Amino acid sequence: MPPIPELEAIRKSQILQAALRTIAANGCANVTMADICKAAGLSKGGLNHYYKSKRDLFLAAFGAFFQQIFQRSGETMAEHADPLDKILSFEWLYTADDPDAVLGYPVLFDFMSIVVHDEAYQQLFHEWVKNWLTLLKEAIEEGNASGRFKGIDPEPAAKGISAIYQGIATRWFLAPELHSTRWAVDTMRRAIIGLLDSYQQET
Amino acid sequence: MPPIPELEAIRKSQILQAALRTIAANGCANVTMADICKAAGLSKGGLNHYYKSKRDLFLAAFGAFFQQIFQRSGETMAEHADPLDKILSFEWLYTADDPDAVLGYPVLFDFMSIVVHDEAYQQLFHEWVKNWLTLLKEAIEEGNASGRFKGIDPEPAAKGISAIYQGIATRWFLAPELHSTRWAVDTMRRAIIGLLDSYQQET
Amino acid sequence: MPPIPELEAIRKSQILQAALRTIAANGCANVTMADICKAAGLSKGGLNHYYKSKRDLFLAAFGAFFQQIFQRSGETMAEHADPLDKILSFEWLYTADDPDAVLGYPVLFDFMSIVVHDEAYQQLFHEWVKNWLTLLKEAIEEGNASGRFKGIDPEPAAKGISAIYQGIATRWFLAPELHSTRWAVDTMRRAIIGLLDSYQQET
Amino acid sequence: MPPIPELEAIRKSQILQAALRTIAANGCANVTMADICKAAGLSKGGLNHYYKSKRDLFLAAFGAFFQQIFQRSGETMAEHADPLDKILSFEWLYTADDPDAVLGYPVLFDFMSIVVHDEAYQQLFHEWVKNWLTLLKEAIEEGNASGRFKGIDPEPAAKGISAIYQGIATRWFLAPELHSTRWAVDTMRRAIIGLLDSYQQET
DNA sequence: AATGAATGAGCCTTCATTCAT
DNA sequence: AATGAATGAAGGCTCATTCAT
User: What fold, for A58-202?
Assistant: First the structure.
């Protein structure tokens, strides 16, 4: 009988966070199990006790990552009352000193490059996108219901909003010399508002 | 004293295209030099004669890739007279049976995941973005000059357009079950037009 | 101060039988301590409590194995009155549905491959052979005494009988498609009787 | 174009013999690829050039081993004219200073312990047995034809002879303190002649 | 008596790179 | 210009063993 019943959960979280940190720092392709062991403060065998293979560990780590991002997104949205404000609430994505953002992008880009060739990763990506879309659709429907929006079609609009966030993020993160945070936030608002307007139904 | 002076150029192109095909098919992290040799129909030594290291080869391959995409973009733009049409002319990016698009995305996602951790790749990304922006800015300025647009600020608008293209492409390519080509094209037009409108100056 | 003094003996037997089952199923080279733990229904630490190392455990397991086979052999022999019948009583060795035979051969072949390189195993093999020879020599001497045999030299004859059993067993077990049980039993009888005859002293 | 066309065959033979030497010396279970590399005078990568995996290499090594033994057996048999002499010609198997015998047994015992759990090895064992049987059956049939033997059934007799050789070899090699070469040769002759006699048909 | 978390040495395998020809 | 044999470092994974509880 283990002295600490939650030990497994604690260790797993420890390992997963260590893995994400290491991936963010070095890039998936350059991360070795030894790196993660060191970051997690565990031996090879100790890590193996919790995750049977590198692939297992990586999938779990990415899963945890998306879980965190999703939770953060929901919380930030909930801080706003106005539906449009909710939709525009993701500007923390363009905050250079936000750890979630700064650690998240390297992980995300690595992840996407793997998605292309790996079905299990595709599945994860799928779920993440759907989670994000759910949050956005709820905000749009709320706006439609309250009269704040005029019959915006939630499905394509949510997908468009999410795509815009990601497109701007890509530029902002990968070519910061060319794309200021100011530009990112400003462009995001313009493009999203423009897109939403295009869906508004004249009465 | 090469008997055929162009041989080097021919071989290099042969190798580069083989590398790109292999990268697109397997993903950078899974590509071995042996794979590329096989695809190029050359031996290890033969390949080594032209590219001294894997890194050299990959950088050259990505360079060639961006060169191709840039040329394609310019040509497609030039087919249109209206500045807005030029700006919207990249919808071939969402064409499932376009070889440039279909082979291009895997390469691009791999590329971006490396950019995060590699300065030389950052440099390349930078140039590619700037090339793309130049094309877009020219179209915007042309529209401003002709009165088609009303004083749109070319710099941020071009960056925004380019980011929108990429954001939608990411979704369309990585989660095709959720994002139809129809949605991609439609959303791209709505978002870009909305963005441009937001920059139009009322007189 | 063990609450149940026999517990140690019970546990050890439990472990040894589990080890033998596992060895028979997978082959020594493929057996892990974890396999044996699972088969024995014990944890690593529990097993370690009784056997300090894999080597210890294996030696004990093989010892137990030979003990079982020896006992079985003696019992079977004792069922027969005639010395020749006693000598020929080992045909259970060629019985496909005899658990001792079917589980025994994999263990035995593994054992012999180790004997070649390990002195402690050699010792065990030695003892096993000697035990077997003792049984056979007793039967021969009994036959000599009763006049059933005519001055057969017990030592070399017993060794020969034992070797014949084993040679036929090897073929019968490892290449059953080529060597039927019928052939095994028939050949064993012919060869052993032929050998014994060759030792009979004409008067 | 390789300077020495036979290089591959030479290297492979080099590697195979090195592997057999190492297996004979240490036992399959204790042989590492590094051991074989050292014995073959090759690096890990060099060895990998010729054999893609340990399993591949081992199968090839055992194949070569049986090939050698088979050739040796045929040659030795051919030195004798009389069918019975041919059949009894394998006494080199009990020669302590015969390299084929002394190196061969460790390999053979290792091999048999693997046969139990591995189909590919079973196949090899099968072929080896069949080859051996073919040699023996030819001699028996020759004896039958010449009148030296009287209608001995070649199939079961050959199997019996072969089994007797092996049974005696097992004892002689694994327990040499108990089984002298003199005993081995003598017992082999007695048992084989006894067996053959049992097959002779009275007229 | 028994658990199972943790260790770390060791092994097989891959692969970029070199170099004699 | 081109081949492919050879190198050796590095990585993922296994597993016997230890030990705190």
Answer: Tetracycline Repressor; domain 2 (1.10.357)
